[in-house]
C-alpha cells in the first residue's frame, strides 16, 4: 500500500476508535434505544432520497441491517449505558472477527483451517480473560451485552458477504433504513414516551451540546467518512493488507477513554486484549500463495468479507 493509503487506514482506525467516546457522550443525554433509532434515521432519510438502492437481494440487505445496524448497536449501547467501560467496549466488539469465522463455518460451510481455528481459540481465550477480570469488580451483564453486540456484527458480516454488492458503500448506507422504525417502536415500549420526550426537551440546553456533537460525530465521521474511506481502500487493496488496521481501533478506543474519562484498564484486561488482537490478526493471515497470479485471485473474494 502507498504511504498515503496507509495513512488513510490509520485515520479510519482513529475515527472509529474515537467513535466510542462519541457514543458515550450521546448516551449521557438520550436513552440507548431511542439513540439508535435517531442515529440511523439521520442517515436513512437522505439515503432514501439521494442514494440508489444497491442491486442486491432484499433478504441480504435486511439481514445486514438487522445484524450490523440493529443487533450490534442494540447490545453495544445497552452495555455501555449499563456501565461497561467505553475503552473496553472498543476491544470486546472485536470479538466479531472470531464470531464471523465460526458462523461462516457453521452456516455457510466455509473451511475453517488450522490457522483460523488457533486464532479463534486465542481470541476467545483473550475475551474470557477480559470478562473474568472485569467480572471480579463489576456485574458481568454489561460485558455479555457487548459480546452479543459483536455477535450481531458477525451476523451482519455474513449477510453483507452474501449480498456481494457492486457498490459496498451503497449497501452500508441502505442498511441504515432497517434499524430506525423497529428501534423507535422498541424504545417507545421499553423506555417510554415520557423519558424520550424529556431527553429531547432537555437536549436544547447547553449541557446537551456534547451529546449532539457525539451524535453528529457517529453519523458524519464514524459512519459516513470512516466507512467511505474503508470501502474505498478495500476496493483497491487485498483485504489482508487493509483489515489488520482495524486492530488499531481498540488501541485508540482504550487510550482515548483512559485520557478523557480516566478509564484505566486493569492489567489482566490488557493481557486479554492483547490475546484478542493477536488471535484476530493470526486468523486473518491466510497461507502464502504459491504464485503472484494465484495471490491476486485469492484476494479478490475477500474484499467484501470485511466490510462489517
Automatic annotation (TrEMBL):
- Nucleotide-binding as a keyword? no
Sorted keywords for this record are: Membrane, Transmembrane, Transmembrane helix
* SUPFAM superfamilies from the UniProt entry: Multidrug resistance efflux transporter EmrE (SSF103481)
Q: Which GO terms describe its cellular component?
A: membrane
Q: What is its main location?
A: membrane
Tree of life domain: Bacteria
Keyword rRNA-binding annotated: no
Q: Where in the cell is it found?
A: Membrane
> Which ranges does the record mark as transmembrane?
7-27, 33-51, 58-79, 91-108, 117-134, 140-159, 171-190, 210-233, 240-260
Domain EamA per the UniProt entry, residue ranges:
6-130, 144-282
Classify the protein's membrane topology as the record does: Multi-pass membrane protein
What the entry lists under PANTHER family is as follows: AMINO-ACID METABOLITE EFFLUX PUMP-RELATED, INNER MEMBRANE TRANSPORTER
Q: Which family does it belong to?
A: Belongs to the EamA transporter family.
Q: What is this protein called?
A: EamA family transporter
Q: Which species is this UniProt entry from?
A: Demequina lignilytica
Q: What is the lineage of its organism?
A: Bacteria, Bacillati, Actinomycetota, Actinomycetes, Micrococcales
